[in-house]
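Data deposition worksheet. Section B asks for the primary sequence of the deposited chain exactly as it was used as input, without tags or linkers unless they were present during the calculation. Section C holds the resulting structure in token form. Section D is free text for depositor observations; keep each observation to a single sentence. Incomplete worksheets are returned to the depositor.
Section A, Depositor: J.P.
Section B:
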Amino acid sequence: MKTKNSKAMLICSVFNVIILLLTLLFGENIWRQVHEHEQSVDDLLQEAEQAFISEDYLSALKIYLDDSLKRNPIALNNLGYMLVTGTGAAKDIKSGCEYYRQSAKLGYTTALDNYILSVLLYPTTYDEVLEALSCGHNEDRPIVKTFIEKTSL
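Section C:
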């Protein structure tokens, strides 16, 4: 666990140094642009969540597909959910699982759990099930431990 936290802290530190250097080179304009981008991503996420809660699924889906959210783990996870469950879009388990995987690769453990559950509920190949269980086992996810205990694997 310490290595993941220290890696994240290192990445944040490097990012802050880069922003500081860019600010020194180009003035405070660059900092304002970065801050406005972060703010707009948060605003988009909040707008999508409100649309989803209001059952305006088409609007939520459009927002989650916005280019500025394509690297946001929460948006990717929520998009995966909408596709796997067929909420606001045609049910597409394969694409939904891919969004879960992308989100999990960005460190969102909820998405990893959703990916594993989706693969176990809707398996397409034996290799896919093994890969999902392996990913979950490598990340020490309780869902995998429970599955293995219950199935005596």
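Section D:
Residues 28-53 form the longest helix (26 residues).
The CA atoms of residues 92 and 126 lie 19 Å apart.
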